[in-house]
Amino acid sequence: MARVVELLYYPIKGCAGTSVAEAVLTPAGLAHDRSFMVTDDNGVFRSQRRDPRLALIRPAVDADGTVLTLRMPGADALDVTVDTTGPRRGVELFGNPYRGIDQGDAAAAWLTGALGAPSRLVRVPPEHGRVTDGLTPGTSGWADSSALHLLSRSSLDLLGRRLAEGGAEPLPMSRFRPNVVVDGWDEPHTEDRLRRAAVGDAVLGYTKLAVRCAVTTVDQEAGAKAGPEPLRTLAAYRRARGGGVVFGAKFSVVRGGKLSVGDEVVVGEWGPSER
Question: 3-class DSSP state for residue 154?
Answer without folding.
Answer: helix
